[in-house]
Amino acid sequence: MSDMTILEQWRSIAYNQNADKNKLQRFWANYFNIEKNIYEQLLENPDEIVSGTVKELAEKYGQDVMTMVGFLDGINDSLKVPNPIETMDEDTKVNLAFDKEALYKNMVDAKADWLYNLPQWDKIFTEEKKKTLYMEQKKSGTVVKPHKVGRNDPCPCGSGKKYKHCCGR
């Protein structure tokens, strides 16, 4: 048995810099399909709290434990109570009680249009609400620089002097 946790094993495969690019691309394409299927099932009944051991959830969704750990890693930031993903093994009790708005925003943030455009979201949020959440998430990553005071501009302190002769010294 390896000294690495299941999460570390998952990450070593998923983010392997030395892996064949085509192989890695196929790995992710396959994973994204699996992820989409699990989210479709979860979003069908978004208020149901799905819980069990990692192994039980893997069986419930027809996946191997390693793939389930990858899924749990991805959804953890959207859960009401995060799972102990860094230390979990296949017998760790986990739950998938997610915050709907946080999950939608995290999908937007990940640029996962195949997830935030799932038809199941239409039963959860109105078109208007989805647009609002989308825009909130997009704006949250935008950095707005404050206006820079020029040397010859009036000083912002209100003295009436030029900035270079007042606070700009």
UniProtKB/TrEMBL annotation:
Pfam families xref list: SEC-C
User: What InterPro entries does UniProt report for this protein, alphabetically?
Assistant: SEC_C_motif
Q: Where is the signal peptide?
A: none
Task: Indicate the segments annotated as coiled coil, or none if absent.
Answer: none
Q: What NCBIfam families does its record include?
A: PRK05590.1
The protein, known as: SEC-C domain-containing protein
Source organism (scientific name): Blautia luti
